[in-house]
Fold this protein.
Amino acid sequence: MSGLTDQQYLVHRARELKIKDPHQSKAWMLTANSLFPDTFSIQFESYSNEKEANHFKECASYFQKLLKKFPSEDNFWKEINKMTDALKAEFKLITTVGKEGGDDFYLQLFDHLDEEMQQKVLILASERSDDTMQKCHLLLILIKKFPALTFKYGESLVETLVAADSNEQSMQAKPVNCYRRMLVADVLPVILGPDSVPLPSQLLHKLLTLSLEFTVALVNRNSSQSWDIKDPWNLMLTNLEMIGRGLRWPICKNISKSRPEQIIVSLSEIQRSALQSSQDSSQFLQFFYCALVTCLQAIYQYDSLISAKGEPCILVEAFVTHDSENKTKRRKTTEDTTSPLISHGDDLSTNLPLEDKLIVEFQNACGAWQLFSPSAPPQKFHSVLTSLASVCGRLDAITKFNIDYLLQAGQFRECLQEVRQYVFTSNGEQIDRAWAHIKLCIAHYCMGDYRSSAQSAVDALGYYDQLLETGKKSGGGQTCHLTKPTTRPRHVRFMSYTQQCVLGYCCKLLTSVLQESVGGGDMALGNMLVLCQCDWPSLREQVYLTLHRIKMKQGLNFPLFTQYVINMDIIEELTYLSSSRGGGLSLDVIPGARGTPRVGTRGANRGEKEDFKIAMMKQASRSHEDVNKILVEFLTKNPEYILQCLS
């Protein structure tokens, strides 16, 4: 004991009596405080004792004394750091595990400090921190707790994060990082809120670009959940509205609370004047960014629906029937005669336009896309998309939407060019080649190039095994829904993007082109019989038409019949046609045998007829086999049989 200083002796005696006699222990500490008010060890010991006893008021008093007299002591800074960590956890800026009790103490201690001391803790902690993110966290808490300080620290906080993000980008283009996330999701909604800080217009434009890049990168990679952003587009629209207020852009007012349809209508009213004004003018810029954000939001929401896990869809050119007897007598509108019918599921968009979410989102995206006059968009539109692609990676959602837009708009040549560009620029990256070949198939078909269309259909089926086997809702094919009665000249359909539906579409389209160029050729007629087996009985009418043509020819020569025709109905029909009652047609469809001859007088050739019946019965025994597998094999291994019919 003789080696202890007076201060150490007083603390030692207080600690000895802490358990035996708490009151006497406290008396020793009071004596120590009165004798040595400027000694850190005694003041910190008093603070620690009150902390152990959970006496928040007394603890706060000692904490404030320590902050005033000993702001540089390491042991005291450990306490400050624990307090600021608790505050960051409260504001969800960091996560803590298993420390909730400790956090509660420091939060209550902070609440018992004077307001001036609370501010001082946060300011000193931010100034002392060497870590940029920690510094920004503390300043954000300071501004959130004391909004009056926003004007003093708000702009510097924004500039610090912009500089940190810029430094991050200099090493690698990475628009989704911790600094950008904090800037866009945490800081801007506070700094630019109701009591917004007036920021320079150049900085506001920079913030708009950073927000847009962050949002597009998030949704482009589908990583919003991992960065704890619940609704990236709502955040983007909120920031656009606040930045627009700072730039005095009246169009941005209430944009975050408006429906996409309302925004598109409002923007379409000023489209002409805005696009004709200078691209540096306020009129152009506010129109441009409002339209761009609305457009990208609609496109990515459309993409999320059409690419939904478990039930993806693909937009295809479908088929129409025109019932001349039931034509309505009302005057046709421009939309009736020019725009295609859009269908999805079992209902048509014309019947229930507001109930099919996919169709509504597609129409919103098309409406927003048209704001940029797609035939001659402003140069800034191209430069912004190019810049976004360089920072965020391939913008496949935008590219694929543009292809769908051109398809429904009937711009098939442009559609063809976009699909080819999409494939050409893949640079070895994994893309959906089945999707690309289907779009090529459609574009060629609509342009009348049936041979190229058939080739692309066959190419698409080369990726058959990579497609989803069956969607959640579409248990079977949807071939029967590909044709709809309408007064419109065209019909486009959102078809389930599954093996069954893609095969059904390819077979339907191939039967359509073969019908137009069938010309009575045996190979074309045989191909029709094979293809019509798909999704039976959806293509039954085409089978009857094919059988009629076979009757007109008085026979059929198709050696591939036994390999690829297993449908019981088709086999029975041909067996009947070969009989005397069915016309006794000559059917050369059994390898190694001559065609069934006409039944002669007195039963001549009856044995050959029996052989044919037995062969057809044997063929019928294969009817349980997987017809889809047979059709894919037929098309991928024998494409020349289809193509030679379309020369």
Remarks:
- Residues 282-306 form the longest helix (25 residues).
- DSSP finds 29 helices and eight strands in the chain.
- Strands lie at 313-317, 319-321, 341-344, 347-348, 483-485, 491-496, 555-557, 586-588.
- Confidence is low (pLDDT under 50) at residues 325-335, 598-602.
